Amino acid sequence: MARGPLAIGAVAAPLTRPLLGRRGLAEGDLIARWDTIVGPLMASYVLPEQVRFPKGQRDGGELTIRVPSGPFAVQIQHDAPALLQRINGYFGYPAIARLKIIQAPLPIKRPPREVRQRALRPSEVAEITATVAEIPDDDLRAALERLGRSMRSRQS
């Protein structure tokens, strides 16, 4: 039975669950979407570490979070009800009942690596254009041409 393309989320969860589950983060979305769940400001100084659920349950869990210092811990204790509401609202059920706060340095976030692209020679542009010329859908042809140019400009 042939199927079309799948969403990355449909295949990522089964692949990441064994890796993240060892750290108690079987809910990979919690890490992947942390910025979205708690907001960019809070995500800049709060990091999810581990989720523990009561044996045999997937709700009422304890989320261990890392903060860099005491003042942040006090702020998180103050904001805990709102934070729990946002997390549980994201999952759509009361997955997390308690927060456990640990104070430890946060990992250093490095800026994304800059990709260097070179200018394409006219012969390379012509080759890419000729390769996609027979594609009848204008939008698809244009997208594939942009992709081809981008990939070729990254090659040495």
How many distinct beta strands? Answer: 3
- The string of secondary-structure elements, in order, is HHHHEEHEHH
Spans of at least 5 consecutive residues whose pLDDT stays below 50 are none
Number of helices: 7
**Morphology call:** elongated
**Mean of pLDDT:** 84
> Structural class of the helices, strands and pairings?
alpha+beta
Task: Supply database-style keywords.
alpha+beta; 156 residues; 3-stranded mixed beta sheet; elongated
Description:
This protein has 156 residues and is an alpha+beta fold. Helices cover 50% and strands 13% of the residues. The chain has seven helices and three strands, in the order H-H-H-H-E-E-H-E-H-H. It has a three-stranded mixed β-sheet, with helices on one face. Strand 2 (61-67), helix 5 and strand 3 form a beta-alpha-beta unit. Helix 6 packs antiparallel against helix 7. The longest helix is centred in the middle third of the chain and has 22 residues, at 70-91. The protein is elongated, with a radius of gyration of 23 Å.
